[in-house]
Design a protein that fits this description.
Elements: H1 2-25, H2 33-46, H3 61-66, H4 69-72, H5 77-100, H6 106-117, H7 120-127, H8 132-147, H9 151-164, H10 172-178, H11 189-197, H12 201-225, H13 227-239, H14 251-256, H15 264-285, H16 291-304, H17 315-318, H18 321-324, H19 332-359, H20 364-388
Length: 396
């Protein structure tokens, strides 16, 4: 496994070097624009200024602090850091799989980790300078401590993950309900619903750890940067719209109404489908044995139904998929078909998006239609995963 970790890290380092060349000779930049935003924000931090002085910086100040070596050490420092985090994710995956499946062979645990380590999308996204590998590490780490029954620490890391990237908040109910309740409310749907919310000492530890971490970080950065911190890093993502780099089915609607103030009813209708699905997955799979699959399904829903969807969001579910592989009974031919369907729908979107951004052609309608096709591909994959989910051992 150690050799694979070295190879995986080397592959990422080579791509980081390649990025320096492509960025200089090609109009299509390898480095993500967000990475340049991170670097500019880090420059402001070093001057004892606010990272939010950099227009479009919409993230936690922690990322700007972590990437300050971009300014005084080397511009590629952040990419190297994100690549290291990628490798750490693989190590954590192996550990969680060994805990989830005590009878699993070392070989199986390693294969699950290698599925992430050699995943081309994960490699490209981290080496382009996207910071989602940080959130992935924190989400996986919180799962690990849940499995180890260290609930306060799991809650604290979960709170840090939410602070870093808002999407892990959707996992909160499933994590909470995965901790066994001391009450037996029966097996019918209503009883399961009641049991979903009944607190006990272990569940309260999880909640307390999360609340304490979130409160401390929020108060700290509010004191440092005022309301700007809340508006840019939290509130902005609740009203965000993107009419260019966006796979979302809501893309064209956002384009047509870009200069119109958001309607609260429209926003509710946009969010309602994913909230209903997230809750139902928590109800159906919200137990310790099914938690990993529950989080995978919820992550796919979050990505597919998001009003803004870019490539880096794929990390949300790609980092969770290896954890569930031993429970997915699906043939190689079906895997290949689903992968082809998913990649084909994504690639079909990229051509009109390139024409729009670099050639200035009016391809908004084509992008929207391809976004719908990509949404359907995501739903097909999710449906196939649910049908193929067969836990190795039944819950006691």
């Amino acid at each position: 496994m150690l050799a694979h970790l070295g190879i995986g890290l080397t592959a990422r380092l080579l791509l980081i070097c390649y990025a320096e060349i492509q960025d200089k000779v090609s109009e299509v930049q390898y480095t993500d624009i967000d990475y340049k935003v991170f670097t500019d924000a880090a420059r402001h931090v070093l001057k004892s200024e606010s990272p939010y002085d950099r227009y479009t910086y919409r993230y936690t100040p922690l990322i700007a602090y972590m990437l300050t070596p971009n300014v005084f050490f080397h511009p590629a420092w952040g990419k190297f850091l994100f690549s290291i985090l990628d490798v750490i994710v693989a190590v954590l995956i192996k550990r969680i799989v060994s805990l989830q499946y005590p009878k699993a062979s070392v070989s199986l645990c390693e294969k699950c980790a290698l599925f992430w380590l050699y995943n081309p999308l994960a490699i490209v996204i981290s080496t382009r300078g996207n910071g989602d590998s940080l959130a992935a590490v924190l989400v996986i780490l919180s799962i690990l401590f849940l499995k180890k029954e260290n609930y306060f620490l799991a809650g604290a890391i979960h709170g840090l993950a939410i602070h870093t990237r808002l999407y892990p908040i959707a996992f909160s109910l499933a994590m909470y309900s995965s901790i066994p309740s001391q009450f037996d409310c029966g097996k019918n749907s209503f009883s399961k619903l009641i049991n979903l919310f009944i607190p006990n000492f272990k569940r309260l530890q999880l909640v307390l750890g999360c609340v304490v971490m979130l409160t401390c970080l929020t108060l700290l950065f509010y004191k440092l940067y005022g309301f700007t911190y809340l508006d840019e890093s939290i509130l902005f993502h609740l009203r965000r719209r993107d009419i260019r780099h966006n796979f979302s089915v809501y893309f064209y609607q956002q384009y047509l109404s870009y200069f119109i103030s958001s309607n609260v009813y429209q926003r509710v209708l946009t969010i309602a489908p994913q909230l209903i699905l997230l809750f139902n997955f928590s109800l159906l799979y919200g137990s310790s044995r099914h938690l990993l699959f529950c989080l995978l399904c919820q992550a796919i829903v979050l990505v597919a139904y998001n009003s803004v969807l870019t490539c880096q969001y794929f990390i949300w579910f790609l980092s969770l998929l290896p954890l569930c592989l031993p429970d997915l009974k699906i043939g190689r031919q079906q895997c290949a078909t689903l992968a082809f369907l998913w990649f084909a729908a994504q690639l079909a979107w990229l051509l009109p998006a390139y024409w729009l951004e670099f050639k200035g052609r009016n391809t908004f309608m084509y992008i929207w239609l391809q976004g719908i096709a990509f949404f359907c591909a995501n739903m097909a994959v999710l449906a196939r995963l649910i049908r193929s989910y067969q836990p190795i051992e039944k819950e006691e």
